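Reopening this one. Same input as before:
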Amino acid sequence: MYKKKQFSGLSKKYSSYQDTGSVGMMMEICHKNLEENKLVQSLSKDSIILEIGAGSSPHLKYLKHTYKKYFFLENSIFSIKHLKKKYKKNKKIFYTWEEKKVVIGKR
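Same output, byte for byte:
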């Protein structure tokens, strides 16, 4: 989410933007509709889930099925800290941080 400390104060503002109003409503509709997908509904209780780029609004709270493990893959230490704090009691959740610099136009 935020790679520089100077922007970390924006977390609450960003979260309120993502979770409220028309943007929040659309995000909620998307998350709920994903759970209605037949492939997602067929997942077993032994599923291992990878969520890429959860940020401050992970899909986890919309899950309708159980899971064995849930991985968050993030490129932001700030987001990882936020998620660890939010889900510290859930022992099925694991966190992965990946920082990779992408250079556009070079091969």
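So the earlier flakiness isn't reproducible anymore. For the record, The mean pLDDT is 79.
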